[in-house]
Amino acid sequence: MTRRAIDREDPDRLYTVTGGRTRADETAFDSVSLIVSESRPTPGMQSEHVRILRMTRRPTAVVEISAELRLPVSVVKILLRDLLDTGRITVRHPSAATQAGRPDPELLKQVLVALHDL
Q1: Contact 62, 70 (CB under 8 A)
Q2: Do the Cβ atoms of 17 and 48 come closer than 8 Å?
Q3: CA 67 – CA 75 distance, rounded (Å)
Q4: Degrees (nearest 5) of the Cα angle 104, 105, 108?
Q5: What is the mean pLDDT of residues 68-89?
Q6: Which of 46, 69, 75, 98 is such that its CA lies 20 to 30 A from the CA of 8?
Q7: Which is more confident, 25 or 35?
Q8: Would the pTM of this model clear 0.70, i.e. be above it?
Q9: Which value, in Å, is the radius of gyration of the alpha carbons in the chain?
């Protein structure tokens, strides 16, 4: 079995990147949440935060960010939470966007009945 690059990641580096935190608020993001930057990087920001802000100028899924940074999704969620708490990103949940674009099923039934009555 070949070890993936992430399996060889230095635990000390991950600890440093997250500031020792091990969990982010799991309700804020899931793997397919779309992240959009709301600001530009500022001098002195952590390099991972800068990279996230640059790559999310267009909506980007959490898993894509994880792959691009070559960091575990759990670590990326911690970094994203930092940016969310400071208002530098917004989160779009695909399921909510999909629901918002769909008409009410009851309305569709009424339209179908009206079409049959024609």
Answers
A1: no
A2: yes
A3: 12
A4: 95
A5: 90
A6: 46
A7: 35
A8: no
A9: 20
Q: What angle do CA 33, 36, 39 make, to 5 degrees?
A: 150
Of the pLDDT bands very low, low, confident and very high (cuts 50, 70, 90), residue 54 is: very high
Quick count: other Cβ atoms within 10 Å of Cβ 15? Answer: 13
End-to-end, the C-alpha distance of the chain in Å comes to: 65
Q: What are the structure tokens assigned to 107, written together? A: 């309305």
Strand partners, 37: 89
pLDDT, one tens digit per residue, over 88-115 is 999 988 765 455 566 667 777 777 777 7
CA distances from 109 to 20, 46, 115 (A): 54, 53, 10
